[in-house]
Amino acid sequence: MTFISWIVKAVNTVGSDExxxxxxxxxxxxxxxxxxxxxxxxxxxxxxxxxxFYAPSFTYYKTEYYCSSPAAFPSISITGSSCSLxxxxxxxxxxxxxxxxxxxxxxxxxxxxxxxxxxxGVLISGGCSPDGSMPFEKFLDAMVEIKHDLKLSLMxxxxxxxxxxxxRLKEVGIDAALxxxxxxxxxxxxxxxxxxxxxxxxxxxxxxxxxxxxxVPHVLAGLHYGKLKGEFQALNMIANYNPSxxxxxxxxxxxxxxxxxxxxxxxxxxGKLIVTARFLMQSTPLVLGCMRPKGMHRAxxxxxxxxxxxxxxxxPSEKAIQIAESLGYEISFSPSCCAQIFNDLRTGKFxxxx
Length: 354
Hints:
The protein is α/β, with parallel strands linked by helices. The protein has a single domain (44-347), classed as Aldolase class I (TIM Barrel, Alpha-Beta Barrel). 39% of the residues lie in helices and 14% in strands. It contains 13 helices and 11 strands. An 11-stranded parallel beta sheet has the order 3-2-4-5-6-7-8-9-10-1-11, with helices on one face. α6 links the parallel β5 and β6 (176-180). The longest helix has 19 residues, at 29-47.
């Protein structure tokens, strides 16, 4: 049995009530090295040897290779610092890193100002409502103006989505819907403080798929107190809906949250999740996203991600860039959101910024 068939079989036979990852997680160094060699072959067959590195504006990034732009692709919260869920891993603190725009008028005004300062696009996000959705309804006309009048690329972090909202977002013409997908009922209840089910996440994927919005699901490794619990199920679900790209992010403890002292999953565990994603979705762009621990953990995770076949990394460590060079990859940098990878691959155009 090849590693690909073995790992897909292991994912498909994991129980939905008791998350049994032993077969996947017990893969030793020899089997994992073989898996990554196969992942590299798959990646190069489908995408060649170009790798994309992203550094959007919400975090300052500078290495000897690249310096980020201060305004090219900022994040905006339509709820300001407010979030009804107060998830245990975030507690709404991440919202404080975004520009607040709590009214449609302010959203347009802010985007107009950001465009004058050099923005090429924005990520619209915010805190969730009690049902896990985002309060987009009153902002839709403003989003039309941002997309069509200001000519900004428009990425939207959606939360759970109804069929009606998916249709309206399609009419707006958003460039991509970013949605977090969770594969554990226990994690949904305990970490997100939500009274919804895995089926609600799948219905959201179905709604976005049905209307044809480019969809970029995110899977957060270690969301359940730093352990994997439902991530493989999430990937398996996502694979059924032809995503435009998939982004793997990693739990990192945030001061001021209930999980500030929780250890993140180790880099090897994250690497196994990434290689699984590559095998399950062989022609889908795969990204290691911006949320992940820093320091040595980041350097090790980034290197494993490249070996596991990612197409892109947000805020890459210098070690990752060096490894990519040593493997003969053609490297591109951009100040845009990493969810844009599918479009950059399709068009061959890449805004490198300065």
